[in-house]
Specification:
The chain has about 180 residues and is an alpha+beta fold. The chain has 3 helices and 8 strands. It has an 8-stranded antiparallel beta sheet, with helices on one face.
């Protein structure tokens, strides 16, 4: 009986063909100049530096690891997790900064994993030095690993000193340490 019904469905006035329908949504990419657009890093950092970006401003050297993790949790991009790993005897917590998806954040804890030792920001190398120089003034220049220039900012009374290492490639690392 089922066979007869299936056979009956196949009979008709001829071949069935679907017809294209008008699209309901335009999926073409918007016109652009094709260049990569980075966020304006200068607006991320306070004018009086060296200082951490506003979402991380409550971090201070030596604060408790749990309190530092709470700050990172509040400052991370929604949907991005906090990764935890051990590097060189230190526990490191990594994430991405909220509203600045081109900025990575790493909290480096002291070897006993009880206190905050330093904060590292991974920045787009293009424009990082210029943006920080515009905000904080001219840095001290020193020679770092592999003969690369490193740029340092210090201010009396500031909880952090900052050092920018413009790595080869597309990223730079801005390290905040106890002065």
């Amino acid at each position: 009986m089922l066979f007869a019904w299936v056979m009956g469905c196949g009979s008709g006035s001829g071949e069935l063909r679907s017809q294209p329908a008008a699209p309901t949504l335009d999926l073409t990419a918007p016109a652009s100049d094709g260049g990569v657009v980075w966020t304006d890093l200068a607006t991320l950092f306070p004018e009086q530096g060296p200082a951490l970006p506003a979402p991380l401003a409550s971090l201070v050297p030596g604060m408790g690891a749990e309190d530092a993790a709470v700050v990172l949790e509040a400052a991370r991009e929604p949907g991005v997790t906090i990764a935890r790993e051990e590097l060189g005897g230190h526990v490191v917590l990594h994430s991405v900064l909220r509203d600045w998806t081109d900025v990575g954040v790493s909290l480096v804890l002291e070897p006993d994993a009880q206190r905050l030792l330093q904060v590292n920001l991974s920045l787009p190398a293009t424009g990082a030095l210029a943006a920080l120089g515009d905000r904080w003034g001219a840095p001290e220049v020193a020679t770092g690993a592999e003969g690369r220039a490193v740029y340092r900012w210090r201010r009396d009374g500031a909880p952090w000193r900052a050092e920018l290492d413009a790595l080869a490639g597309e990223r730079a690392v801005l390290v905040f340490e106890r002065p």
